[in-house]
Amino acid sequence: MDPIFGLQLRVDRQGQEPLRVQLQRQLSHAIFEGRLKAGTLLPPSRQLAALLGVSRNTVMQVYEQLASEGLLLSKPGSGTEVRDLALPASQEPGRPDAGRWLKGLWHDLTLFAPPERALPYDFALGAADLSLFPFDHWRRCQVRALRQFETQGLDMDWAGYPPLRALIASFVSQSRAVSCNPGQVLVCSGAQQGFSLIGSALIEPGKTLVAMESPGYPMARRAFLAAGARVVEVPVDAEGLMVDALPGGVDLVYVTPSHQFPTTVAMSASRRLALLQQARARDFLIIEDDYDAEFQLGGQPIDALQTLDKDGRVLYVGTFSKCMFGDLRLGFVIVPDWLVQPLVLARQAADLHSPLVAQAALAEFIRQGALRRHVRAMGKQYRAKHQEVCQALAGCPWLVPVPLLAGVHMALLADEALDLEALVIRARALGVNVSHSGPFGLAAGTRPRHLLLGLGPIALEDIAPAMARLNAAVAEQIKA
Amino acid sequence: MDPIFGLQLRVDRQGQEPLRVQLQRQLSHAIFEGRLKAGTLLPPSRQLAALLGVSRNTVMQVYEQLASEGLLLSKPGSGTEVRDLALPASQEPGRPDAGRWLKGLWHDLTLFAPPERALPYDFALGAADLSLFPFDHWRRCQVRALRQFETQGLDMDWAGYPPLRALIASFVSQSRAVSCNPGQVLVCSGAQQGFSLIGSALIEPGKTLVAMESPGYPMARRAFLAAGARVVEVPVDAEGLMVDALPGGVDLVYVTPSHQFPTTVAMSASRRLALLQQARARDFLIIEDDYDAEFQLGGQPIDALQTLDKDGRVLYVGTFSKCMFGDLRLGFVIVPDWLVQPLVLARQAADLHSPLVAQAALAEFIRQGALRRHVRAMGKQYRAKHQEVCQALAGCPWLVPVPLLAGVHMALLADEALDLEALVIRARALGVNVSHSGPFGLAAGTRPRHLLLGLGPIALEDIAPAMARLNAAVAEQIKA
């Protein structure tokens, strides 16, 4: 019997796929799976067509297609036969060994879990307050940008949509006294990508030494580790990074001078100057993460560290995650001219560029003054929330707010008598989501001393009841 | 004279900034710039207030603020003085030396320039045809997703918006016969990020050896170089990557089996099997870049290489840049289970995640069948364009289209007599933007033999006149 008859070829006239496609798939599977052996002569197209009740043309197309894929061989004069594909002998699958493949770094890290299930009172870190965000306005900007993309196109620039770069330069010069021209601004998908691109451009794996604040922001640390950096931790006190404790041979220093993460202290003026002086004397660069300093809580915030830098040693990283919302995934870095093109190259290698439509929508939002209005409104909102927390703690000697100049989260310095790990667990059981500074790096053998309250998700009117529960948890622990 | 009078402090009642902010900025600048020296005693607040014509309260607030920033020292009983900031002695700025800082890689690379100024007839590579894209439908999906984000929030998953992961798994199983479950799908910002994350997870700088097609896709190469890979080039012939030419010790092999970039050949079935066999025998992994194979040009396209892989050695990279549009910046990788979490970790370190709003909009677009309809319509459109080019070349023995099973660009194999570099220049002068394969890697001493025509930007009705000009340029060169 012709081996083709053993295949039980079937075509379904009611099927969604054309008959040709049905036939071709069955034949190619039979060849790949070894059911049609190499050298097998296929029936002439006319014969197979008659057998299946399809047109001869259909069969001829399938044969041609399979020949073009290298599955069949058309031999002039002798018909069409199955090619020798050198199919592997049946054997156990040879799965790769994950242990051999993964770089060491990825064995050691754990995933930052998605936000916990919502608790009634949520002081989660890192999220912005969206209750006042002008979504309607933003939607109009987005729709308009998409229409412009559709009808006229949007100007492409790998470093960012040109009008947005100019608007960012002007926005940060006004809100943060950062001095730059638009050519120094590189749009990226959030501060995290800023760290990662700087790492890609500057970090030599296994060589470059990066100093980080301790406690400090773990995701920046990961970006530098992923680029192959050696990381050293430098303690933070009430004036910010302890500059005198920087080790020798440091290449890059990462700081959050406006609102240290997580302790919230603002770096003192003398420390700022010392850091810049050291950068010059010891030839290192500074990465300034200015993640939420647009929100002023009292007086004038300390200007950005970049403002004081006359040498071009500060690489400034900003984000729209706090002053807009995190899901926007847009941020920027402001760097000296010599670093712009390398960062653009690193960006191309990483993921090409940020969506022009989103960039154009943001440009429109800024141009119309909506960002400035929103930042002003949110500054007021965060001030009110901050005040509410402070009032609730007025009678509590166990948790003392760290003085705050700017930012979206507070740190409460805890009395030695308090066990913050237990307190956080108890508070969560009472429906209040708070954090402590433990996971953000500590000297060995010490216990976390900062309780952390993000002011984003929680509603203003929920703060009093939330703090009442937190105070109750504190009282319980003190009594026990 | 009290040194403060030398400062020429001024407040402007008509100014936009509050008087307090104006005064504070002037004082802090004077301190930072050394015009107010350490130890200088400031006038009592009442006196300065009278001098400037502001309220005493304003001056007191400014003093307090500057004290909190570490610029002033309030000495009980003796007034307020300027702190010793240990200002650096005036000196030349100490700019960093770019040469010392930049990693070698970024010295050698050049920027991929933004698309050239538009020519009347544009066969640019890499861009999708947007003329038939259902922008209105897409806009509705986007607006709906944004509203959902605003009112209910969207489910966060670092690996991607969960409904989108499931829809992608089902879409690729139908359109590309890729077999996977949603848990193996990682949403990323385009194929480029897919390469870069795989590199970040698997490439040991200076050790890992990556084999790439030559000629091949330069941006994938850059992603692997940026991760520190050693890259080796393996030639491509009419059956795709020459598997027998893979060198020893190779760890990763990057291929474009459905539609080789840039030569457009589909990898033959026997080569596919040989590659999978070698991967098992020599323990390497395969990165399959399946960038535009949704568009079928004739017959059934060859299934993805991943379809044949029983070992979990193929890492499949897909993108929505071609079947939607590039500015969407969404793509995906499909990998064996053991690699999912490391890639998510690498993604967190790189830029956290893709916007949920965009992911939810895309999920809606797919769920409503709009993507499938668009892919079908575009397949027809690209087939028509392909045919139009072939017809125009029917009488031309100098440029022969490479047979094409799928994809958005064509390669024309040029006769030895043609100088493609000169031809491309001449064609552009005639208003026709075409490319040749030269920039994509060649054996030393050889000349490019492929003329490349992207079928995205050009309108169907423009192809005949464009090809007439191209043919004229060919005729000129042959005659000369």
Can you tell me the number of structural domains of chain A?
3
- Could you tell me the CATH topology label of the largest domain in chain A: Aspartate Aminotransferase, domain 2
Largest sheet of chain A: 8 strands, mixed
State the end-to-end CA separation of chain A.
89 Å
How large is the radius of gyration of chain A?
31 Å
Please state the average pLDDT score of chain A.
Answer: 89
- CATH A-level architecture of the largest domain in chain A: 3-Layer(aba) Sandwich
Query: Which residue ranges of chain A are poorly predicted, with pLDDT under 50 across at least 5 consecutive positions?
Result: none
The geometry of chain A reads as: elongated
Note the total helix count of chain A: 16
Helix content of chain A: 40-55%
CATH class wording of the largest domain in chain A = Alpha Beta
Provide the CATH superfamily of the largest domain in chain A: Type I PLP-dependent aspartate aminotransferase-like (Major domain)
InterPro entries (chains A, B): Aminotransferase_I/II_large, HTH_trans_reg/aminotransferase, PyrdxlP-dep_Trfase, PyrdxlP-dep_Trfase_major, Tscrpt_reg_HTH_GntR, WH-like_DNA-bd_sf, WH_DNA-bd_sf
Pfam families (chains A, B): Aminotran_1_2 (PF00155), GntR (PF00392)
GO molecular function, one term (chains A, B): DNA binding
Keywords (chains A, B): DNA-binding, Pyridoxal phosphate, Transcription, Transcription regulation
